[in-house]
Amino acid sequence: DIFHMYCIVPFLIQEGIQIIGINWRGVGQSKGELQNLSLHHMAADVISLINALGIESVDLIGNALGNRVARCMAKDTSGLVNTITLLAAGGNIEPAPDIKDAMYAFFNIENTDIEGKIELIRKLFLSHSSMAVDKCALGKLIMHYTNLQPDVTLAHHKAGDTPASEWSSAGDVPMLVIQGLDDKIAPPENGELLKRKYTDRVTLVNLPNAGHGLLQEKPCEIAKIIIDYIYSQ
Predict the structure, then answer these.
(1) CA 33 from centroid of its chain's CA atoms
(2) Do residues 171 and 82 make contact, with C-beta atoms less than 8 angstroms apart?
(3) CB of 116 closer than 8 Å to CB of 123
(4) Residue 61: pLDDT above 60?
(5) DSSP-based helix, strand, coil % in the chain, nearest 5
(6) How far apart are CA 128 and CA 199, in angstroms?
(7) Which of 90, 108, 140, 171 could be cross-linked to 186 through a Cys-Cys bond (beta carbons 3.0 to 4.6 Å apart)?
(8) What pTM was estimated for this model as a whole?
């Protein structure tokens, strides 16, 4: 989505890659029914946009929930998706119990403690061994996650519960998986599992000193990996 991609967009554009970003339903000016939202609905939104723009095929980049939407889209279509880059890609291996508790506290719509949420952002999204996030990027991260509408957050979380059997394989599309080795929300075992399961079409890149907010921590490095991958296919 637009917010998370802003860190790497300038690098990609510089290399001649055309970027199309979206806001999910309920974010920014994006509209749409939130009741009973699934990954299939979110994937259909992206497909509709691509078709409306008259684009024949795309290389998808999906971060966090977007990784699930990207894989669902690839499975729901044929020939539209060339490659998928997955960032902070969970969905199979659960976070540790204390991290799940912290996530619950963070996304709890009744939690209005902004200072507490800022500390939870540091705990949940950033590497424990590196605080390599400039103040501007950290500020945007804080503003994004503390200004989400509760009904939107809840709808997106429920969409993420779409059974993995309906989206996890991404059809037969090649996948680049970039993951932070300090990711506590989407443990790196998720990428290892994808690589073992789909060996021939998964390229796995592990980034040390990066967490779930790896796009904010290592934007230049991630952009280069994506550029090299897309142009190698």
Answers:
(1) 21
(2) no
(3) no
(4) yes
(5) 50, 10, 40
(6) 30
(7) 90
(8) 0.90
Structural tokens at position 16: 């001649």
Q: Does residue 107 sit in helix, strand or coil?
A: helix
| Structure confidence by residue, pLDDT tens digits, 161-213 | 999 999 999 999 999 999 999 999 999 999 999 999 999 999 999 999 999 98
Q: How many angstroms separate the CA atoms of 232 and 228, rounded?
A: 6
The chain-wide mean pLDDT, for the chain, equals 89
134-165 confidence digits (pLDDT tens) = 566 666 666 666 666 778 888 888 999 999 99
The residue assigned the tokens 């795309």 is 58
Residue (of 216, 221, 5) closest to 130 by Cα position: 216
φ/ψ of 7, rounded to 5, equals: -65, -35
Give the DSSP letter of residue 131.
-
Structure tokens at 98: 């204390």
Strands 58-63, 175-180: pairing is unpaired
